[in-house]
Design goal:
Number of helices of chain A: 8
Strand content of chain A: 15-25%
CATH superfamily of the largest domain in chain A: Dihydroxyacetone kinase, domain 1
Shape of chain A: globular
Order of helices and strands of chain A: HEEEEHEHEHHEEEHEHEEEH
Structural class of chain A: alpha/beta
Radius of gyration of chain A: 19 Å
Helix content of chain A: 25-40%
Number of strands of chain A: 13
CATH class of the largest domain in chain A: Alpha Beta
Number of domains of chain A: 2
Oligomer: homodimer
CATH architecture of the largest domain in chain A: 3-Layer(aba) Sandwich
CATH topology of the largest domain in chain A: Rossmann fold
Largest sheet of chain A: 7 strands, mixed
Distance between the termini of chain A: 32 Å
């Protein structure tokens, strides 16, 4: 296992400390519960957005904490859901009296724990609601999931609902908007290589030197096909075909596009893939709105692979998508 | 070789097409010579900044083209210098009458070719000057280099001199500023794994499963020591020790800090490393200015590893470092 770490059991704690030291004016860490919150939380009168999940998907979710996106992120152990206690502490830290809204990726552990956290928070007088994001079109009922998995489309929920919360939208309004984004976002991923969680010390799956997995989940859950590596254009065609053939009609629409690297994919290759994505979308009459989002947004440690996400936009979403935000993942300069 | 590509010989061409399709309002590509230029080039009356080098280091350099940074980037084949012809065409495309300034990383091929391009451009009536960045403290006289190599510190030259050029500084002033940044910036890198250029199809070096290379160059040039993997804190201590022990006195200074991923390093690990960097710098009385730059700024394809860069700032540099810019690598949202 080749990792730049000190000890497998300290990775999350040390990562959080590094994030706080790097962006102290923006966020602070509650180390006892591995929660990152906005430095200025709670923001009075604003709905507070909370997300979270297993670690190992950075910059998801801590990198999206800040004005215009999340109020808090709960970091579980690598690839393992955070606990209801963590989520409750996050809720108490960021509630500004207008309630908290949980953005939950559809994994059974995450959903159960956020539901329980909501009950605990309500018992303490904090109003809560949540959305379960399930944008991955590749498979139904996966290893850790009933229904479809929640993947990179979640970032668009963070961005759009985060801006809406800053804009003063109330809890019911945030819920409606989050459901609307989720209803219009579709993703699919693939992997060329596996990855190794620090504490496990072994790859999450085996894959041959000439193989790839189409439809792979972000924790190595099996996809739709294990086959020989194909040219990037063929891979894009298959993934986009599945996304465009799903239940959202993207034809003629203005669409937010994300080409998300899984952590070990050179940016060069993401641009090679995007060249084909742009061509296919043009041929299909799908209009890319403003600019595509190309880079590592929701990773799986050092996995090589990528995902494609399309979100069909309406006018309200467009406004919130392009609103300013200030988060660690948004500060390259 | 596991890569998301169509054909090894088409990687650079397709990457550039993808970049242009993604950021058409910001940049355009001159495909005949693999040059990326600002969409609004030439900007009349402004010194034009040009950089370039072998591909495979993305977002270096094309990702830094745009207002506030570079006017053009010349993309060579993977890990191979672009030619004087490419640089000349870039110069002609972006010269706005105030001259062009080349930011050159110290590799023998790059230096010779940019020098020749300067002569060709001068013969066509374009005023030119250049800086050779040599920030890597690890070794003198490496595989492709006489003297010290130019690595991630180059990004600070792009940022600071790019802002200065937009601010109206003339060619002599840009030259002086670039030399001043270079005189005050020091970097060191390390690698856990090798990487595979698409056309070669084989790793650029071999390394055992329990080994790392301290002082590794961005093309796999040997460093100062090949040894067993150590904890992140020990690695950081060794690298920072060498940087702080070099000829720039960082003590008491305000310093720009970059923790640069080599392409295959999880962001989680860069934050683990930064936790130690912050601790050491605090103990040494070195003040991190504003925020550290943590992420993949100058990569080596899918190599796992990272580099640390420190730049001792003065007031003028601070202003230009924090000035707005709009480049592909600066647009996560």
């Amino acid at each position: 296992m080749k990792k730049l770490i000190n000890a497998p059991e300290k990775v999350v704690e040390e990562m959080l400390r590094g994030m706080e030291q790097a962006h102290g004016g923006l966020l602070r860490v509650i180390p006892e519960v591995s929660v990152i919150v906005r430095a200025d939380a709670p923001v009075q009168g604003k709905v507070a957005l909370i997300s979270g999940g297993g670690s190992g998907h950075e910059p998801t979710h801590g990198g999206y904490v800040g004005p215009g996106m999340l109020d808090a992120a709960c970091a579980g152990p690598v690839f393992t859901s955070p606990t209801p206690d963590q989520m409750l502490e996050a809720s108490k830290a960021v509630d500004g009296g207008a309630g908290v809204f949980y953005v939950v990726k559809n994994y059974t552990g995450d959903v159960l724990n956020f539901e329980m956290a909501g009950e605990l928070a309500e018992a303490e007088g904090i109003q809560t609601d949540y959305v379960v994001v399930n944008d991955d079109v590749s498979v139904e009922d996966s290893t850790f999931t009933t229904g479809r998995r929640g993947v990179a489309g979640t970032i668009f929920v963070h961005k759009i609902c985060g801006a809406a919360a800053d804009d003063g939208k109330d809890l019911a309004g945030i819920k409606e908007l989050a459901e609307r984004v989720n209803a219009n976002v579709r993703s699919m991923g693939m992997a060329l290589t596996s990855c190794t969680p620090p504490e496990a010390g072994t790859p999450i799956f085996e894959i041959a030197d000439d193989e790839m997995e189409i439809g792979m989940g972000i924790h190595g859950e099996p996809g739709t096909a294990r086959k020989k590596i194909e040219p990037a254009d063929s891979i894009v065609d298959e993934m986009l075909g599945k996304i465009l053939g799903d239940s959202v009609d993207f034809s003629g629409a203005e669409v937010a596009v994300m080409i998300n690297g899984m952590g070990g994919t050179p940016l060069m290759e993401l641009y090679v893939a995007y060249a084909r994505v742009a061509e296919v979308l043009k041929n299909e009459g799908v209009n890319v709105y403003r600019m595509p989002y190309i880079g590592d947004y929701m990773t799986s440690l050092e996995m090589a692979g990528f995902s494609i996400t399309l979100l069909k936009l309406d006018e309200e979403m467009k406004g919130y998508l392009t609103a300013p935000c200030d988060v660690a993942a948004g500060r390259p300069f």
